[in-house]
Structure formats: structure tokens, C-alpha cells
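**Protein fold record**
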Amino acid sequence: MISAALGALVLACALATGVGWAQDTTAEAATAGADARDTAPAYPAGLDDPTIELDKLELRMIPLTADELAALAAVWQAQARAAAQAVVDQSLEVRAADGEEAEALRKERLELVEERGRIFEKASAVIASLEAKGGDPAEVESMQGYLDAVIDAGRSQLTLQEFTDGFLKWLVSPEGGVAVGFRLAVIIGSFFVLLIVARIVRAWVRRAVDRTPQLSNLLSGFLVMLVYWLTIAFGLMFVLALLGVNITPLFALVGGASFILAFAMQETLGNLAAGLMIMINRPFDEGDYVQVAGLGGTIKHVSIMSTTVTTPDNQVITIPNSRVWGDVITNVTASDTRRVDLVFGIGYGDSIEQAQQVLEDVVTNHPLVLEDPAPNIRVSELGDSSVNFIVRPWTKTADYWTVYWDLQRAVKEAFDANGISIPFPQTDMHLHVADNEKAASPAVVSTLIGDDTEKQPAASDYASGDYGADEPGEAEEGGDGGDGGGRG
């Protein structure tokens, strides 16, 4: 049965092409078929028919054992060799002919090349099934290696004319250029359709996250972007799968590339992880004024990799997210209200009660100061030169600097109007000289004036008039050195 089928194949190819290779290959295929029939178990009839469709052959091979597939693979290898020999013989005839005869032979050669491609495809399917069911690895490698070697050698020996003929034939073939063009058109069309679908999904997700107040603007924007691109990616993979493209190697490629990139882009991945933590934990949001990484500014934009802030003098600074998340983050505007911390000093000779009343009047009369929480005004420190009051009113976050600057001016004006001094730092110094006779001796100070040197006597007595100079011990207590009135 096997040899008869192979003989029919060879005779059919001979009649179709009008070449003389059929007799030799028929005998060879019959011999191979006979050997396979005598040494291997039988397999279902028709599986070695060259005209069988590929999908039907793959389906009928499912129940076969490894021994049956080995015999079937040997028959298909013999058919592949016969088809390859037919192409080689026809190529030799084409190269020896010229004119109209060469044109006719080239057409016949293209038909043989197509037939060889179909037989090789079916032979590869049988060999793959044999490998999957535990066939001899050496035998499988030998058979598949033969098919690959024949194809590679045939391509390397093509002339320019043969390559052109093959390319033009492939371009108009339903299984070649037409199929590829159709797939490309489907992929491109599907991509534009997916863009529309992704935008619709993005709008729906945006409405959903807008109704969730717990999500920050940063996290909601990231989720919307993520859903948009995932819709396009999964949509394209679905389209490729429908077109029959095996996308399993794509996942393996992505996995391998990700493993390599993980080492090459460690710092970038650190920024990525930090960006996700910022979006999930929400230490700040766009529009907040923060102090981070040694900088202060308003959050302008946060991406998955970096944070952009605008400083008060309108500098735009981009900070890697790893530095943002790895540093202390101070969100100045996170709360609705803020406390304004001020310190005012009065002289030691001024009335504390009067200063307290003036400060309370100034603070409570400011329209932007909140009544609840109530302002806190207390004596906080007896300083070196002043009695210091802390003034801590509360205001809305947006009014912080207005209140801060207004109270500074208002307190100064109110103190001046009520005769309350704001002392400047001062120090009273008492000089004690132990040796009065040495101090009383005149000293000579040389002063260079031009080219001449003029000698002038210094003060006659450094201790003269010094308060407490006659005391032998420490300087006498005189002036408290901090009354704000310049005494001592």
C-alpha cells in the first residue's frame, strides 16, 4: 500500500511537469516503502497520501503510537527526498535552456517548488508528532535536520532569476503574499479599532475612579493609563491568536527580555517601584506644596518614574521617585488649616500685661485668623535681651503667608503706638584690670602716615572711669545687660 501510494505520487508529478525524474524516484520510494512495511507496524491507510490536507493529517495522527509514527515519518522523508530531487533536476534543465523553452521550464519549476513546500510541511508535522510521543531523539533530529538542510542549501544556490520568480510567485499566492497582506491589514485595522475601544474603556474607568474619593489623582491617573494600554496589548494578542499566529514564543521572549532588563535597569526599576508606592500610599497629590529631597515646591506632575515640582521662584525640578520615596516627605498643604508660629520680644522694662493685651487685640482683629482653634499667646522665654512671646494663631492653609506677613507688620505698629519696645541684641561689658600701675603707664602707638612715622600717646589710664575698677575680684554687678533701654 505504501509503495503504491508513493508510486502514484511520483507518476502524478511526472505527468504534471513533463520531466524525466519519475522513474528513478518511483523505484527509490517503492523500496523505502517496502522496507518500512516489512520492518514497522502498519498505520491507518491514507496517511502517506501526498494529497492529504495538513489539518486532516494532524488530526488522524493523534491516536498513533511512536512506532507507527516512525514508519510514517520514514515514508514522508522518502517523499520529501523525491520532491527535492525533482526541483533540482528541473533547475538544471532551466539553466541549460533559453528563450521560450526556458520560460516554460521556469513555470514548471515553480510548481515543483510549491509541491515540495507542501510535502516538506507535512513531513515536518509527522516528525513533530513523533518527537512529541517519545520517538528516538537521534532519528527525529536526523529527519528534521535533513529537511532543514535541503531548504537552506536550495536557497543558497538560487540564481537571481530563480529568486525573482519565486518571490513574484509567493507575492500573488493565496498562501503567501496575499495571506500575509490580509493578516497585516487585519492587524492594522484591529489596532485602530482597539484604539477606539481602549479610549471608550479609559473614559469608563475614569468615571469609575472619579466616583471613588479614596483614590488620589496620582493613583487614578495611573490606573486609567494602565487599563488603556492593557486593553490594546491584550486586544492585539487576541487578534494574532485568531489569525493563527502562535503567541506562546512571544511570552517567552518577553519573560527573557524582562529578566535581562531587570539587571541592566536596576535603578530605573527602583524608581518604578517607588512610583508605585507613592501612588498607593498617597503621601502627596498634584498641587500640594511639599518639602522632599532637600527641596521645597508645588507638585506639578508625578509619573511612574519621577516627580516634577515647581519652586516658589518658578524653577521646574524633576526628582527621581527613588529619592522622593527614600527621603522624609513633608506635605505642607495636606491639611485644610495651618498654625502660624510667630515670636515677638519686648524689653525687660515693658509691661507684660500690656504687651499680652496688644498681641491678643492684633491677632483677634485679623479677619483671616480662625476662632477655632483659638490663638495661643504666651510668654515663652526670658531671653538675653528680651522677654519673648509666642503667638500661634490658626488660619486656612491658603491664607498662611497672608496672615504671617500681616501680623508681623501689625504687631510692630501696635507696639510703637503703645510705647512697647522691641529690643535689639546688646551686651554690657565690664573690664577689670589687675595691675593699675602698668595700665596707667603711657603707651605709644605708631601710626604710619605716608613715608613718615608719627608717635602718639595712647589713653593715659585704661582703668580710669571704669565702673568697679577698684574692686579686686570679679566685675561688680552693674546693669542687668538686657533691659532693652541701653542701661549700663
